[in-house]
Amino acid sequence: MLSAQDFEYAMESTQVIVAPEQTIETFGTTSFRFVLVTEFLDEVHRVRIRDGRIEAERPRIVSPHIFNKMMLDGFGDRARDFADWLESQQDFVKILRYGFSLKKTDLSEKTLPQSLEGTVDRLRDEIGEGGETATALITGIEEAWEVCLLKFTADLIRKSSVGNVGEWQRRGLI
């Protein structure tokens, strides 16, 4: 089990190298591809690349006590522990519920004998050349890779929530 310090370290170490251009749709499902690169701490020039999809259901307005029922389908125990810890933090969005799921069927991983910097540079170029506007390139911590992925989604929620709330207000829903 990861400690609170482990969560904080993973969150501080998570870097979004390429962010998706879009935010979470207010009234529909949004799908993002993620490429998460982690470096092995005990081996020099060895990285793991995880490639998968995250789907965000349309956000819903809910009361704060519902947040602890956040869906983490496809995530492991460390992600659940992180979600429980995140819920206790005062600065997290508490009036909106965003349902996310990691499609394990789309998740692939590979380990390569490469440096983190070289791998990230190559992947950044591939994403840019491919015009992949719904792709995130993220670096993080191997032992807490799911926490890093959830940090990315939490940041995406914060970024999207302003527009989502504005859209609800314009339509008279809140």
Structure description:
There is one protein chain. By secondary structure, the protein is α+β, with helices and mostly antiparallel strands. The protein has one domain. Helix content is 36%, strand content 25%. It has four helices and eight strands. Strands 1, 2, 3, 6, 7 and 8 form a six-stranded mixed sheet that branches. A hairpin with a 7-residue loop joins strand 2 and strand 3. Residues 63-70 have low confidence and may be disordered.
Question: What distinguishing features does this structure have?
Answer:
alpha+beta; 6-stranded mixed beta sheet; 174 residues; 4 helices; 8 strands
Put the structure in a nutshell.
The protein is of the alpha+beta class. It is 36% helix and 25% strand. The protein contains 4 helices and 8 strands.
Assign an overall shape.
globular
CA(first)-CA(last) distance? 39 Å
Helix content: 25-40%
Mean pLDDT: 78
Low-confidence stretches: 63-70
**Main sheet?**
6 strands, mixed
Strand content: 15-25%
Helices and strands, with pairings:
Elements: H1 4-13, E1 15-18, E2 30-39, E3 47-56, E4 60-61, H2 77-87, E5 96-97, E6 100-102, E7 108-112, H3 116-130, E8 135-141, H4 145-170
Parallel strand pairs: 2-8
Antiparallel strand pairs: 1-8, 2-3, 3-6, 3-7, 4-5
